[in-house]
Amino acid sequence: MRQLPSQRATPAPSSKVCATLPLWDYFADAEKWGTGTSWQILVADYVSTTDGTGIVHQAPAYGEDDQKVCESYDIPVVLSVDEGARFLPLFGQPSPSGSTALAGIAGVQVFEANRTIINALKADGALIVEKSYVHSYPHCWRCRNPLIYRAITSWYVKVTEFKDRMSELNEQINWIPENVKYGQFGKWVENARDWSISRNRFWGSPIPVWVSDDPNYPRVDVYGSLEELKADFGRLPLNKEGQPDLHRPYIDELTRPNPDDPTGKSTMRRVEDVLDVWFDSGSMPYAQVHYPFENKDWFENHYPADFIVEYIGQTRGWFYTLHILATALFDRPAFKNVVSHGIVLGSDGQKMSKSLRNYPDVSEVLDRDGSDAMRWFLMSSPILRGGNLIVTEQGIREGVRQVMLPLWNVYHFFALYANAANKGAGYTAQVKYDSQHVMDRFILGKTRELVQQVTADMDSYDIWSACEHLRLYADALTNWYVRRSRERFFDEDPDAFDTLYTALVTVSKVAASLLPLTTEEIYRGLTGERSVHLADWPAAEDFADESELLSLMETVRAVCSTGSSLRKEKKIRVRQPLQSLTAAIANEQFAQLETAFGTKGADYFAKIVKDELNLREVILVNAQDANPADYGISQQLKVNARAAGPRLGKQVQTAIKASKSGDWTIADDGTVTVAFDTIDGGTCIS
């Protein structure tokens, strides 16, 4: 732009702008174009002197920020290109001053007109310098062609009038993951703007609005049913087969005289726009049952939906439009529970794409690992907690290794020994919820815990946690119960057979929705019944509460795991026996030894540890009575200067020195007192 010769380049005191001359005067006629306030130097916060020249050309018809800034200075939106991004024919005519400098761009696509415009600037002596810059630019994700922003007229839903109510209704929705409720979705609702619902296209749901074609006699009619259309137009829109069809071009054939025009010359015509497809999606709950014209009772008893699921991006799409329309029309949420999962990425970490083929071949995965493997991989991944998921063959096989194979191996182990029992006659196992053997009590108690956990997880739509609890159960069943009970199966112990049978039948029911094919095979093989998917969900109350035993058994496993780690650290193999191990047990658990494990609870605890770690002796002591120093255990105090500094001020250095010199004590409640003699009155750090 050129600056007016008579004007200094300083903003006026009141408006903080200074006027400039247009490079060309095609739109300089203020009466015709409303551009009397145009060609100014403006001030905007989003423009900085750290990027580029610090001067940005504003074209309100071709950018959101441009339009906002210019609107605040009453600069109008003027279009210079058509729907195909081609310059308007007016440029082919002389400008008001008679200039034909831009005659060559009329009808030319904007990206192809750059050189013509640059040459015109050179010819006018208005070009200071010509340079090329590499920068990001929007492209169509389908055809990869560059795009332009262009202002168009649109119909809106006035979301800003009820967005506060949308936030209130969001409180009634259970979001998985929970952070989306007040995060990505909640913040989007808080900052909601009016929603443009019209699109300038042929295909789509036509907007049912008719307007007068004469602005001197304005009228707007909005229709809500076929009956209303028929009443005003005398007929319905019919396609070539003579069937009612509300799509274009048939709907556009309905016209009638404008009732508000006394001359009878103007006509009511439908606006050419169609509805945004997201309006269709947001209307899905009632549109699918033709509410309110049909199924009114059914809809009112089935709305809002109990559960929906889509990927995280729909917080600005489907979830959002459902919520807008539900709030506006019904003043209630559109859904009660929603799982907002992450994005499935290819093996290269990029968005999964058919054209890039950046993911494992689905047919190969299904043939090699099975559909349950793929299903488990997806259900147990962070994707159901809003995280992204990279699909790899290794990840799919990991689920097979951790859950599917352990469950199948236990089933195969049971079938092998149950069929071979009684000299080949076999043993018919029965569901049994109680046993006197400690290991049976453990796995039955673990099964009760599994049913409780997975039931709670499923009720709260936390599928990831349900998978995690199943994985931990499979580990306990395989690597602890079966491994510790092998001799009992070799000896054909009926209690062992019945207990393992009960555990397998129950876990098949619990895991049926996550591993449908694997559990079906196991369940039918065990029971001979038609399908696990027709069975009732197991009741946790059928199993005894063995919480004390489970807690102690986890301690046993922790002691064994720690002992195994110590062997590895010292490079001593398990085959080499060691003399003894002393385990300090928490006071409350030490008291439970006799009740949970039986009258010889301590001996049983010790026997398991001896067997697992190949020890001659295991000594159990009460941690409350044990002196840590007797076992080479000492405590150290480290002062977090960043946290303690604001409380202690300059004395924090004294506290640090005291912690290093050992001038500190710890009370029973965990309070630490440092440098009692140095700091007046002592300083307590919680």
Describe the structure.
This protein is an alpha+beta fold and 686 residues long. It is built from 24 helices and 21 strands. The strands form 8 sheets. The protein has a 4-stranded antiparallel β-sheet, with no helix packed on it. A 3-stranded antiparallel β-sheet has the order 1-2-3, with no helix packed on it. A hairpin with a 7-residue loop joins strand 8 and strand 9 (220-222). Helix 13 packs across helix 14 (393-420), helix 14 crosses helix 16 (463-484) and helix 20 (547-570) packs parallel to helix 22 (601-613). The protein is elongated. 23% of the residues are buried.
What is the rounded Rg?
A: 38 Å
Strand fraction equals: 5-15%
Overall spatial form: elongated
Helix content range of the residues, please? Answer: 25-40%
Q: Going across the major beta sheet, what is the strand order?
A: 9-8-11-10
User: Which structural class is indicated by helix and strand composition?
Assistant: alpha+beta
Overall mean pLDDT score? 88
The unreliable regions are 1-15
How can the largest sheet be summarized?
Answer: 4 strands, antiparallel
Q: Number of helical runs?
A: 24
- Euclidean distance between termini CA atoms: 67 Å
Number of strands: 21
Question: What is the topological layout?
Answer:
Layout: E1 2-3, E2 18-21, H1 30-33, E3 40-41, H2 64-72, H3 114-124, E4 156-157, H4 163-170, E5 174-176, H5 179-182, H6 184-190, E6 195-196, E7 198-199, E8 209-212, E9 220-222, H7 226-233, E10 256-257, E11 267-270, E12 274-275, H8 277-282, H9 284-287, H10 296-300, E13 305-311, H11 318-330, E14 335-341, E15 344-345, H12 362-368, H13 371-379, E16 389-390, H14 393-420, H15 438-459, H16 463-484, H17 486-490, H18 494-510, H19 516-527, H20 547-570, E17 578-585, H21 587-597, H22 601-613, E18 615-622, H23 641-648, H24 652-661, E19 664-666, E20 672-674, E21 683-685
Helix pairs in contact: 13-14, 14-16, 14-18, 15-16, 15-18, 15-20, 18-19, 20-21, 20-22, 21-22
